[in-house]
Write a structure and sequence with these properties.
Helix content is 34%, strand content 16%. It contains ten helices and seven strands. It is globular. Bound molecules: S-adenosylmethionine.
Length: 270
């Protein structure tokens, strides 16, 4: 069953699953792999019961998925204890819990009630996003139970994308959605975000794709629409540039047209 992700995530790909519904409905594969999991919007929309390998370098995120997979009722009852108001938010934000269940409930609560759902930590690794004043109910019990069910055949791991290669075999499908190194701007310059995903990481990713293609796998890569990205991934052929209307962040947020590059070895008209 296809479901929505239970987390809000920067760079979430729900729009992609909606636009390319037919592609995902007709996708054939042995095992599914998503090494830049985030909110898992592609995995959850697929609704697959096949073996899945899901990973991300965000440790708290993976711990949350594991708790939802194994002990969803315990996480739900922890969530049911907290209120959505400013005082409770800052109390939970500064709390340090010692059990995985409580940490998972905290992660979901902060994700749902914070200002923009962004996962942002300070230099000490402390979550520092302000309260969001959101009125939407932060506890969706049904969705969490559906997510738990969807995760039953998934192996979850906190690791760099490159170390997932050993699990990938002929006939598998890999969806790759790395953080976008190159920022989109109007002046034609590019800005690399070394802390998130460096240029070096993009080269490692290009090499990773070459290796998984040699294994006989299918993949889709989404990435920033920039000539530099086109060059780094030139072994994968020409990208398709896809456009969409999205909210451009910053102080004076506005709706604008953004584009992204899609690379794939699937035979499909994007
Ligand atoms: C653009 S987000 C993925 C969004 C996801 N597709 C969704 O729909 O929510 C990129 C993810 O890659 C993770 N990440 C960053 N560097 C990584 C690395 N070297 N290996 C694996 N994951 C990494 C981040 O923690 C983040 O969750």
């Amino acid at each position: 069953m296809s479901i929505a992700p239970f987390l809000r995530w920067a760079g979430g790909k729900s729009w992609f699953t909606r636009r390319y519904k037919a592609l995902f409905e007709n996708l054939k594969f042995n095992s599914y792999h998503e090494p830049f999991l985030g909110s898992g919007s592609i995995f959850f929309s697929l609704g697959t019961q096949k073996t899945a390998y899901l990973s991300d370098t965000n440790e708290e995120l993976i711990e949350t998925y594991l708790a939802i997979k194994d002990t969803p009722h315990l996480v739900i009852s922890e969530l049911a204890k907290v209120k959505n108001d400013k005082e409770s938010y800052y109390e939970v934000r500064s709390a340090k819990y010692t059990t995985p269940v409580k940490r998972a409930a905290r992660f979901i609560y902060l994700n749902q009630t914070s200002f923009n759902g962004l996962y942002r930590v300070n230099l000490k690794g402390q979550y520092n996003v302000p309260y969001g004043n959101r009125t939407k109910d932060f506890l969706d019990e049904t969705l969490l139970l559906q997510a738990s069910n969807a995760l039953q055949n998934a192996t979850l791991e906190c690791c760099d994308f490159e170390s997932t290669l050993n699990n990938i075999h002929e006939g598998d499908f890999v969806f790759l959605d790395p953080p976008y190194t190159v920022s989109h701007n109007d002046n034609g310059f590019i800005k690399y975000n070394q802390n998130i995903f460096s240029l070096e990481d993009q080269y490692r990713l290009a090499n990773f794709i070459t290796r998984l293609c040699h294994k006989g796998c299918n993949y889709i890569l989404t990435n920033a629409a920039h000539p530099e990205i086109g060059k780094i991934f030139s072994d994968q052929g020409d990208p398709t540039e896809v456009y969409r209307v999205s909210l451009i962040g910053g102080k004076r947020a506005y709706r604008g047209l953004t584009s992204e590059y899609i690379f794939t070895n699937l035979e499909f008209e994007l």
